[in-house]
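job 3f2a | input accepted
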Amino acid sequence: MSISTNRTPILNLSDGQKVDQSFRAADKQLRVNRQGGKYILLRLADRTGVIAGMLWNADERVFDSFDRGDYVFCRGRTQIHNGALQIIVSEIERMDPSEVDVEEFEQYDAKRSDRLVERLGQLIAQVKNVHLRKLGEAFLADEDFLSKFKLAPAAVSNHHAYPGGLLQHTVDLMELVSLVAPRYPQLDPDLLTLGAMLHDLGKIEEISSGGEVSYSDRGQMVGHIVIGVEMLNDRIAQLQQGAAEPFPDELRLHLEHMIVSHHGQLDFGSPRLPVTLEAVALHHLDNFDAKLSAYTNVIETDVAADGNWTNYNPSIGRKLWKKGL
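job 3f2a | predicted structure (325 res):
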C-alpha cells in the first residue's frame, strides 16, 4: 500500500469525500451481520475529533492486523448515516509511528492544563473551611495524582471526551459553584466547591487515555463513583496522619454523599438520590456543564447542509439550532 503524507483533519471531512490517509484506531469491534458476514466497526481519531468507520467483508486476519491505539492508513469514502458522517473503509493497514506526524493526533494541550491547574489551586485557596481547604491542597500536592488528573478524559464519548477533559470539566464546574453559591445563602459554598472537585475523580482510574479513550478493566467492574469514594477516604486517612485534629466525620459523610448522588437518579447510575441541598445543586450544575459541552460537540461536528439546523440526532431526540456558533 502506497502511503500518502497529506491528510484532511476529521473536522474538515465532508460527505462523499475520497479518503486516503492516516488515523489513530481509537476502537475496533468485529461484528456479524444478519446474513452471517463479518465486518469491522471502527472509531478513527485525530486531534480534531473522532469518526466512525465501517469495513465490510472483513475477517479475523484483518481484525488482528492492528491494535487499538495503533496508527492506521485507511482508504475509502465518507458518507452520511443517521445524520452523522462516517467512513466506508475499503482498505486498512497498520502504520509505524515513525510514518506519521504525532502532533496531528495529540489531543492533549499541556499549556492549557497548566493554566487549569493554576486556576484550580486559586479556587481551593478561597475555601474558608480549613479541613476542606487542606483536603483540596493535599490532592494538588500529590504529583502522581496530578499527572494523571491532567491527562484524564471526563468521558469516553459525549462530553469532555479528550485527554485533559476531566480537568476542564472540574474547573468549569467549580467556577459555576463560585457564581451560583453566593446567590443562595442556604448552601455551604465550601462544601459545594470540594464536592465539585471530587465528584468525578474516580474517572482517573475508570477511563484509560493511553493511546485511545476507553474504559479500564476496573472502570468496567467497579466504576468511578465507588473509586471516587475510595480515593476520598484514602486521602483523608493520609491527612490524619500526624494531624492535630481529625477530619470531621460530618464533612466526610457530606462529601461521600455528593459523590454517590451526583448523577441525580438511580437509573442514571447514582447509588443514592441527592438528599442535601449541596448534593442537589451539584447534580444540576454538573448536568448543565456536561450537557452544554455535549450539545456544543453535536453542533460543531454536524455535517448538515442546512446552515441553521443540525441533522436530527437520535441520542438527544432533536435537531439543534447551530447558526452563529
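job 3f2a | The chain has a mean pLDDT of 89.
job 3f2a | closed
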